[in-house]
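User: Here's a protein and a ligand (2-phosphoglycolic acid). What would the complex look like?
Assistant: Let me lay out the input and then the predicted complex.
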Amino acid sequence: MSRRSLIAGNWKMHTTAGEAKLLANQVAAACAEFSDRDVLLAPPFTALRSAADALAGSAVILAGQNVCWEPQGAFTGEISPPMLRDAGAAAAIVGHSERRQIFMESDEMINRRMIGGLKHDLMMIFCIGETLEQREGGETFSILEQQIRQGLSEVPALEMGRVVIAYEPVWAIGTGKTATTSQAQEAHAFIRGLIEGLYEKEVAAHLRILYGGSVKSTNVDELMTQPDIDGALVGGAALDAASFGRIIQYQ
Ligand code: PGA
């Protein structure tokens, strides 16, 4: 089964509108010659519009870094799916470990975000991953299973075509420690197997699973050789046009 790869850049809480425009322009130029892979950028909400303008005419997909489940209402500080669309985004990240750990988002809340985003036809990048303590305690697979079962609860097979899972071991995010290629592949194969059990073979075979956590221009090629690694979710290295450009051009 060949899946189209996806290289995603999560800019986190970086870039003003002006900086986003410049960086988005550089990314669009770096991926213009590649038609066999998808590229996605997730700027902060305030920079979505200027990034969208810079990406006009390019195939780069724009995403929000989170999304609320309701279309509007009394949800101070949140952004709704129609608002993301209005700002030029077609996708959203949910369940990032920084949302889980710093802002205490639960699996149940992440599930509501998933369902709300899917209802509005957004492509959803659903992040999961274990902490160092959980890995050392031998809990990696049970944690991944819990995050998947709860995060995808009530998501029908029909909507799984718009779901991408990002496996991001928390201990590898922003730390310079990448999971070894075999650790990453092992987790990805486990996740695909789980999806096959929860849905069906076809859904699992089509599902794109990204690896995230200190992905750089120097390790992307090796990660991408693995059969169950379909792309990368990149944080730090996505803020540098040359590094991210090289990651997009993985071989
Ligand atoms: P990193 O972040 O590439 O800086 O480790 C990845 C992420 O948080 O998505």
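Summary: The pocket of 2-phosphoglycolic acid is lined by residues 10, 168, 173-174, 212-215, 233-237 (CB under 6 Å).
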